[in-house]
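Tutorial, part two.
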Amino acid sequence: VSTARCSNLVLGLSYFPKLYLVDRMSPNRAVFKNVDALHQSRNSPGYSDAEGIKLELISHPTYAIAPTSARIVIRFGSGFTKLGLGSEENALRVVYRRNKFII
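Running the prediction step on this input gives:
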């Protein structure tokens, strides 16, 4: 995962459980385990969005990108969940659609 304007910056990990942007060659960069499965899900007509692909990390074995808080409701039912480094069991599941991740 990198920014559109600064492709040299990628998603990285620092102090547990926070996520940061780090240099593409940093030893702290997040390297995802299931990238191929994620790309294949985009082209599979029978693929269920409910299943999703886990955001497990090969760069940090036994860890994944996971929710680090309960859903925080802001107003009118909208809200957000904080994400960070967590256990594989709690990995966030995503699907890839039309060049975007849908969580």
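The chain is about 10% helix and 35% strand. In part three we will examine how such features are distributed along the chain.
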